[in-house]
Design a protein that fits this description.
Blueprint lengths: L7 E6 L9 H4 L1 H4 L4 H8 L4 H22 L9 E2 L5 E2 L11 E7 L2 E7 L6 E7 L6 H14 L7 H9 L4 E2 L5 E2 L16 E5 L5 E5 H26 L11 E4 L17 E5 L3 E4 L2 E2 L4 E7 L3 E7 L7 H4 L6 E2 L2 H9 L3
Parallel strand pairs: 1-17
Antiparallel strand pairs: 1-5, 2-3, 4-5, 6-16, 7-8, 9-10, 11-13, 12-15, 13-14, 15-16
Helix pairs in contact: 3-4
Length: 335
């Protein structure tokens, strides 16, 4: 696990820990690592899955401050900055500032951190269709469902989501490229038959669900990117400039082939997304989007594009999947 002032990206999968029994009993060792008021905050969650993510979030914030700020675990004090964004404010001048941002969704908790304090960071996780969006899509069509988010996205982004489709993979493993899907690009209904023409000239009938699923995945790619950027700025989804912030050249990364082992749980990474604000391209922010397993997307944004920085080179450090025992308990309980 990385130490020092370098940028780090860590992921903790709470689906694999604290799996049985009440959290107070099952995760008592972890809870004891927090301050009483933080333990109480975790305990307020009604759903155990939410409490687990809250607990993991606290542990990761502690860990990034310990590792990057050289602060003893017991001396860590979490503060709130702009828009209640969690932050670390050193009490002594000899302590290093630490910039970090956390996101959690559907059992996963991610943190990005930097030990210099000179950069702003944002991270966001989405789990595609976790809320079962099909009900509204079946009722209102995909276009109607997308229109529900017109206060968040620009008219160009909304049009892009509705009328563009990226490559898809059919059930037999055939990859159909975007230029072969022009005849179904405006499809907005599920459970219908569509005809596409493959590059070979062969017509092929497909279920429109494949098209809608591809559009839904791409919608969440837009959402994840925008959330990561907003969190980097310290704002919230209520910011009045949301529709002036546009993402172009957006493509949802291909998912991992399977979710069976750690080695292949990460899918494709997309690095060439363009960021525009009030019709001008932003070049001092690096952003990327990576797939995890089949249904998760993780976006990272950073303002640190100084020469030689990971963001400037286009190569963020890889996400390290942390182990609760080896990476967290061993650090926190060190004498």
């Amino acid at each position: 696990m990385s130490d020092g002032s370098a940028m780090v990206r860590w992921l903790l999968d709470t689906r694999r820990i604290w799996q049985s029994g009440p959290l107070k009993k099952n995760a008592s060792r972890a809870l004891r690592l927090l301050k009483p008021e933080e333990q109480a905050a975790v305990d307020r969650y009604f759903q155990i899955k939410d409490a687990k993510m809250s607990l993991a979030s606290y542990l990761l914030k502690y860990l990034v401050i310990v590792r990057l700020g050289s602060v003893p675990w017991a001396d860590v004090v979490l503060s709130e900055g702009r828009s209640r964004k969690p932050c670390y404010v050193p009490k002594h001048s000899y302590r290093k500032p630490v910039e970090f941002n956390v996101s959690h969704q559907a059992g996963l908790v991610a943190i990005v951190g930097h030990g210099s304090g000179s950069s702003k960071l944002g991270v966001d996780i989405v789990c595609i269709n976790e809320r079962n969006d099909y009900g509204i899509i079946d009722s209102e069509g995909f276009d109607g469902w997308v229109n529900m988010y017109r206060e968040v996205f620009s008219s160009q982004e909304l049009d892009d989501m509705k009328n563009q489709i990226q490559s898809i993979m059919l059930e037999d493993g055939t990859v159909v490229l975007s230029d072969e899907l022009e005849t179904v690009a405006r499809c907005c209904k599920r459970n219908t038959s569509c005809t596409i023409t493959l590059r070979s000239g062969e017509p092929k009938i497909i279920n429109s669900n494949i098209v809608i699923d591809a559009k839904l995945r791409r919608f969440y790619a837009f959402w994840c990117l925008k959330e990561a950027y907003i969190k980097m700025t310290g704002e919230a989804l209520l910011a009045d400039w949301l529709r002036d912030l546009e993402f172009r050249n957006v493509r949802a990364p291909w998912p991992a082939t399977t979710s069976g082992t750690v080695a292949n749980r990460w899918g494709e990474t997309v690095k060439d997304v363009e960021i525009w604000f009030e019709r001008e391209r932003i070049k001092n922010v690096r952003i990327e989007l990576q797939a995890f397993e089949e249904d998760y997307l993780v976006a990272t944004a950073s303002t640190d594009v100084t020469p030689g920085s990971p963001a400037e080179s286009g190569n963020f450090p890889i996400f390290e999947e942390l182990d609760i025992q080896e990476d967290i308990y061993s650090c926190a309980e060190r004498v």
